Amino acid sequence: METDIAIRARDLSKKFGALRAVDNLNLTVNHRQVYGFLGPNGSGKSTSIRMLCGLLTPSAGEIEVLGLRIPEQAEELRRHIGYMTQQFSLFTDLTLRENLDFLAAVQNLPSAQARQRVEELLQEYGFAGRAEQMAATLSGGQKQRLALAGSVIHKPELLFLDEPTSAVDPESRRDFWEKLFELADAGTTILVSSHYMDEAERCHRLAILDHGRLVADGSPAALTGALEGRTLEVRAERPRHAKQVLLQVPGVISAAQIGNSLRVLCEETDDCAARIERAFGERQVRAEVRPTVPSLEDVFVAATSQAPEEPVGEGS
């Protein structure tokens, strides 16, 4: 149904001089989804997010967010969205309460409602009893949690998060994502960019961008399932030597060493293992080759090794 769609972008492009940062992006995000953007630095993730939330004017294409045309209705959209970047964007010389009070004022919340909402967020985000603490004294994970609290102070329908956990420790990242799912369960749609594979696995749906193009789109399960039969594990006495041989075998896209074994991604499912075993036999490499379950890292490598005409996945 049309009413299920929170974000729709069609043929979205952005050029900076001769650089095409985003190249004909087609995207559909449903309400209540946690939708992930995955891609290397420079892939167009941040540029896409800034266009979707009305901060950057596209060079071409159409955007509709929460039923509003962007950028024409960007001012109206800002009342319904939250936006958070990887850099702590609040005031370090203010207390936690003062930061939240300021953001409530920016969102024009009535005084009584603002006081109640600030108290709710201090409790919900683990800052009870610390309201008068200076923001500068918080750890990296705590700062990001405060920034998330600030971005949802007006209870937005849609939340844009641009690599929000890139500078925090694993435990803080895990806690942060618990908060995201609480928000999604309460009805908030979330679009979050990341370069962490474990975070990508948490998303309901995932887009992979490379050089400004959408090269994969689907649920994590569907994307990994599409690679069934194309991933192998190689256990060898001399992994580094085995890797050199593997990379010369036709059809092998990548071979990554993980401990004493090698993870191999093939172009196709047919007889890749047999070709590898023949190559090992010819080079007298003692190794065991067996199938293994595809991972999102394999999906990422497959999608970015060569950009297809149409994105890999379920479609939109």
TrEMBL record:
The keyword Zinc does not apply. SMART domains: AAA. GO terms for molecular function: ATP binding. InterPro entries: AAA+_ATPase (IPR003593), ABC_transporter-like_ATP-bd (IPR003439), ABC_transporter-like_CS (IPR017871), P-loop_NTPase (IPR027417). Residues 7-236 form the ABC transporter domain. The keyword Cell division does not apply. It holds the Pfam family ABC_tran. Keywords: ATP-binding, Nucleotide-binding. This is ABC transporter ATP-binding protein. It comes from Microbulbifer taiwanensis.
